[in-house]
Amino acid sequence: MKGGLLGTLPRGRLYPELDAVLFSLPEGAIGGPVESDMGFHLLWCEKIYPSVAAPFSKVRAQIRQLLEDRAGRNCQKVWIAALQRSASSGSSVTER
Q1: Are residues 59 and 40 part of one domain?
Q2: Which DSSP state fits 64?
Q3: Are 35 and 69 found together in one domain?
Q4: What digits encode the pLDDT tens for the residues 25-60?
Q5: Which of 23, 28, 31, 37 has its CA 20 to 30 A from that of 82?
Q6: Same domain, yes or no: 41 and 59
Q7: How far is the CA of 8 from the CAs of 42, 45, 83, 86, 93, in angstroms?
Q8: Would you put residue 73 in left (φ > 0), alpha (ψ -120 to 50) or beta?
């Protein structure tokens, strides 16, 4: 969208296959081609910034939201699996 520039990214923001290559590159190196769901990519690690530990008080809300989102996705997976089982067995699923 910006000519392929992603900006400064923390680990875990990209597709796992891109993340693995990008975060193994030394500063200034080019990696790839790497295939993802979006196609093929060349990755350039322009600069590496040292990680910084944030105080818990500053990240508490983000952590809470992340954990709530993860719990919601897990509940959805369980519900979908139950729907799939009931569809294949012909029984019904009761919502709680």
Answers
A1: no
A2: H
A3: no
A4: 999 999 989 998 888 999 999 999 988 888 999 999
A5: 37
A6: no
A7: 16, 10, 41, 45, 45
A8: alpha
d(CA 61, CA 58): 8
- Say yes or no: 27 and 2 in one domain: yes
Of residues 96 and 41, more confidence is placed in: 41
Q: Flag whether pLDDT at 91 surpasses 70.
A: no
Q: Tell me the residue range of the domain where 15 lies.
A: 1-50
Least Cα distance to 6 among 36, 47, 54, 34 occurs for 47
Question: How many Å apart are CA 79 and CA 94, to the nearest integer?
Answer: 10
